């Protein structure tokens, strides 16, 4: 009897303890246009310090796409997304404090042949953290909720004496996922859409156009490919000499800009290498970029934006032909995603922005 009484007393004492204060963290994703990174803000809106896993890879986008039923969830694929909290990314946020990170949402909503999720009219809701498990169990004939297990994205942090900043560990309890306010994308995001290039007006006098058609979602640098198309946008047939070796690329990636130069053109092409391209028709070229670009160009996991350039140096005059001569470049890049790189490049850290009085 005594043991039972003690157990009941302990349970009653725990029930009488005040509940931990709620975690008041704000999530805000600011779309800044198609040519600049979006900005992710995480703010402590409460009056107590919070331990936060400040890792931008934990962002997830829930998107309602015009004309589709339900929603599309965009998240980083394994192994880009972290499975647990990395201690070096856990920060203590004081009341009113904010951290932020710049990111390209196309890394999360990846589309190899043109964006079909982040389009005009899409409604985007940012979520940050890990999925909630919502497990249940049977106890004494009743189904009850089982407490969530780590990892947690945010939790209470101990007060630091004298307002000093204290190093904190990964939250042992708290919130699994934070949800921010949604927003709609405007008409400027048509430039990301798959149909944007095909609906452009043809400039006066334009004959050929180089279009970036698709980039790969590669598991490693070995699988990185890009497909471009040479399209005759004039009203008459045009003879062309097109070879993959004449392609050059400009690549913006996690470590900056890399240029991949085309092969030398000191040779005489045979007559049958010139082909006639009818009005409205295209020639597609798919290139494995590891073979054309400097070693290590794609050795880091992440998103790459690839522009292509194509030279037409041969007129065919030596064969009595009249072929197109000139250079073309893609107006918009095509994205390539590398899931796992051979060289580790740490993802961007979130930086502290300001310290404001708690509301």
Set down the secondary structure blueprint:
Blueprint (H helix, E strand, L loop, with lengths): L1 H15 L8 E6 L7 E7 L5 E4 L5 E6 L7 E3 L15 E4 L3 E7 L19 E7 L6 E4 L2 E4 L8 E3 L20 E3 L3 E2 L23 E8 L1 E2 L6 E8 L5 E3 L6 E7 L2 E5 L14 E3 L4 E7 L13 E11 L13 E4 L4 E5 L12 E5 L4
Parallel strand pairs: 15-24
Antiparallel strand pairs: 1-2, 2-7, 3-6, 3-11, 4-5, 4-8, 7-25, 8-12, 8-13, 9-10, 14-16, 16-21, 17-20, 18-19, 18-22, 22-23, 22-24
In words, what does this structure look like?
With 359 residues, this protein is mainly beta. The chain has two domains: 2-190, no CATH class; 200-338, Sandwich (Immunoglobulin-like). The protein has one helix and 25 strands. It has one helix at residues 2-16, and strands spanning 25-30, 38-44, 50-53, 59-64, 72-74, 90-93, 97-103, 123-129, 136-139, 142-145, 154-156, 177-179, 183-184, 208-215, 217-218, 225-232, 238-240, 247-253, 256-260, 275-277, 282-288, 302-312, 326-329, 334-338, 351-355. The strands form seven sheets. Strands 15, 18, 19, 22, 23 and 24 form a six-stranded mixed beta sheet that branches. Strands 4, 5, 8, 12 and 13 form a five-stranded antiparallel beta sheet that branches. The protein has a four-stranded antiparallel beta sheet with strand order 1-2-7-25, with no helix packed on it. A hairpin with a 7-residue loop joins strand 4 (59-64) and strand 5. The two termini are 51 Å apart. Residues 1-17 and 195-201 have low confidence and may be disordered.
């Amino acid at each position: 009897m005594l043991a039972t009484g003690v157990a009941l007393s302990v349970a009653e004492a725990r029930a009488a303890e005040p509940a931990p204060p709620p975690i008041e963290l704000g999530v805000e994703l600011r779309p800044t246009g198609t040519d600049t990174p979006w900005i992710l803000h995480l703010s402590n809106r409460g009056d107590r310090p919070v331990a936060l896993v400040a890792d931008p890879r934990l962002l997830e986008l829930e998107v309602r796409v015009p004309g589709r039923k339900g929603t599309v969830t965009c998240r980083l694929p394994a192994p880009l997304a972290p499975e647990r909290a990395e201690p070096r990314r856990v920060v203590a946020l004081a009341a009113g404090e904010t951290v932020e990170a710049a990111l390209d949402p196309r890394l999360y909503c990846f589309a190899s042949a043109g964006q079909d999720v982040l389009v005009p009219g899409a409604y985007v809701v940012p979520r940050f953290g890990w999925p909630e498990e919502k497990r249940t169990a049977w106890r004494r004939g009743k189904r009850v909720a089982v407490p969530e297990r780590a990892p947690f994205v945010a939790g209470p942090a101990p007060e630091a004496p004298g307002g000093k900043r204290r190093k904190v560990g990964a939250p042992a309890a708290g919130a699994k996922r934070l949800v921010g306010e949604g927003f709609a994308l405007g008409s400027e995001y048509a430039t990301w859409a798959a149909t944007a290039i095909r609906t452009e007006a043809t400039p006066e006098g334009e004959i050929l156009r180089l279009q970036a058609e698709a980039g790969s979602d590669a598991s490693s640098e070995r699988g990185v490919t890009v497909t471009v198309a040479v399209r005759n946008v004039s009203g008459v047939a045009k003879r062309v000499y097109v070879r993959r070796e004449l392609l050059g690329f400009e690549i913006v990636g996690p470590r900056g800009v890399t240029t991949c130069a085309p092969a030398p053109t000191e040779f005489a092409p045979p007559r049958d290498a010139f082909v006639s391209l009818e009005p409205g028709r295209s020639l597609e070229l798919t290139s494995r970029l590891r073979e054309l670009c400097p070693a290590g160009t794609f050795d880091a996991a992440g998103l790459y934006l690839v522009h292509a350039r194509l030279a037409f140096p041969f007129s065919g005059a030596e064969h009595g032909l009249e072929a197109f001569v000139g250079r073309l470049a893609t107006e918009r890049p095509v994205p390539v995603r590398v899931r796992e790189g051979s060289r580790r490049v740490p993802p961007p850290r979130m930086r502290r922005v300001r310290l404001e009085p708690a509301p």
